Amino acid sequence: MADQDQLFQFLLRLGDNTLVLGHRVSEWCGHSPVLEEDIALANTALDMIGQTQLWLGLAGEVEGKGRSADDLAFLRDVWDFRNVLLVELPNGDFGRTLMRQFLYDAWSQIMLSKLASSSDDRIAAIAEKASKEVAYHVERSGDTVIGLGDGTEESHTRMQAALDYLWPYVGEMFQSDEVDGAMVAAGIAPDPTSLREEYDAKVQSVMSEATLTIPGSKYAHKGGRTGYMHTEHLGHMLCSMQWLQRAYPGASW
Amino acid sequence: MYAQMIKTARSGVKNREEMSDQEREFQDRIDRDEKIEPKDWMPDDYRATLIRQMGQHAHSEVVGQLPEGNWITRAPTLERKAILLAKVQDEAGHGLYLYSAAETLGESRDELVRLLHEGRMKYSSIFNYPTLNWADIGAVGWLVDGAAIVNQVALQRTSYGPYSRAMIRICKEESFHARQGYHAIMQMAFGTPAQKAMAQDAVNRLWFPAIMMFGPNDSESTHSEQSMAWKIKVKSNDELRQQFVDQTVPQIEYLGLDLPDPGIKWNEERGHYDFSDPDWNEFFDVIKGNGPCNVDRLKDRVDAWEDGAWVRDGLLAHARKKSARTAAE
Amino acid sequence: MSNEWPLWEIFIRGQHGMSHRHVGSLHAPDAEMAIKNARDVYTRRNEGVSIWAVEAVHIAASSPEEKGPLYEPSNSKVYRHPTFFDIPDEVGSM
Fold it and tell me: A single Gene Ontology molecular function, please (chain A) (predicted)?
């Protein structure tokens, strides 16, 4: 039986990733390059909001203080968020958004496939449902990265720039700490470090097809999943996301 | 409505004596409620009027994403965020269905979009009003989509097959929109005093713009007759407006909100609600481009299109390379 | 060359056992993306289990002027319909 506080932290990491990235993706609504992409991005965001409700709902249950998924999403401040830095980065152009999506989806797909056999049935059930959604996301974001990388000179240049910008944020997804150690010990989740090889193979195959070059530097920004140091961007996101709940406490919507 | 003040390509209705044999046969088919299909013969004016109407309708759906999209990142709960996002996504879908219907007449979507961006085609006046508080999201779903549904239900019977089929599909999805809107505003009208004040503010601001959606009074509407004869338009502006007011007033009363127009009174004799005319000068100003949000709305659409050009070109270039590679194998 | 994405006609099979039905159209750079876009655009409410995408230019259509010759001949072949034949009730259902 894992320490409940560590389990809570672990679930926040999963739920905050989908919360923050789903929010970022939803910012595109009405502004995409073409209607079909607008509709597709909204589907991705909707799936991620749904996953957030499940992960944070379970987190609240595990915490045992009566907090709902909404309480956790709308009433915590920056330092309590446990998402990786990658997902809170601003959207940039469409190419950067899709590159970020792919880099996340590829990790998420591997992570969820392991979580589907978690010793915690609740986690296994959520992972099972989410992995069907993510299997489609990664196919779509991967194909788009390939299409744009291998498209025109301009789209290639932009996608390479997106990859260069985002790559230093990839490493954080594979760092482990004592929370992860406790999850591994309880058979709840894999050690993030152990996912790296499969991830690199997947990403390398897509980038090759996309004619893009993965940067050589191994440097990894960190601080999101521990909450130690987020980027400045997260606070601005929370300003809009949490505004109504903060301005009118106790109201029901 | 979503299609307002559509100029029929000719003025007045042709009478039977003026019609050629082909035109007479065409009119007979319409009078028998037969649907006209893409490859059927049709008068040039019918085709041109339809393209304008379906195009404007499609533009309205797409520009209509913006005022509600304005609140997606500020939705107060995860569920409300999901509902709103799914709703705005539907609008994009509706735009897509309608562009497709227009494309059956040989007008490409890119061309229609270009005309919109150059200011040569319009979209509904309603989307040039701002959404200022969260209750506006409820009010837009309930009042704006509610008004649209009144029109679109009638348009399911329109004479052009692809337009009619698009409307049938859209109507199925629209009732979700109106209901989620009313549900959201109900929560506020029955909520805290601050929430109720937001709900009242939203209804007050959006009432007249909503009833303007049906277009000018019949007496002022010069383009309708031929469109009615062709069943491109199925009911008159005033008929539809009255229907909307009659169904909406009791809904406002149920919320316990003040009526947004002191002129609203039940008229026993007519069996309908009386109500005040909106300020038609304001309507024509908005149509001319002087509404509170015209400039921003169009800029958002143009920016999305121009900023997205490299994406569209990139994916197409990749598809062409891929098929060339396959052909070479 | 126009840079507009080609138009695709989308056919969806709603439930197992039913045939594919035309549901509408959309734009996509290639067939794979057309299928994906169709999934995102036309199955938002669980409408489908199988998708076909056909590039619109590849659809051959009968022309409306031929409607008479193509379909009217079958109007007179009423014997193709089961109700044409009177079978006594005693025979049982057939």
Answer: phenylacetyl-CoA 1,2-epoxidase activity
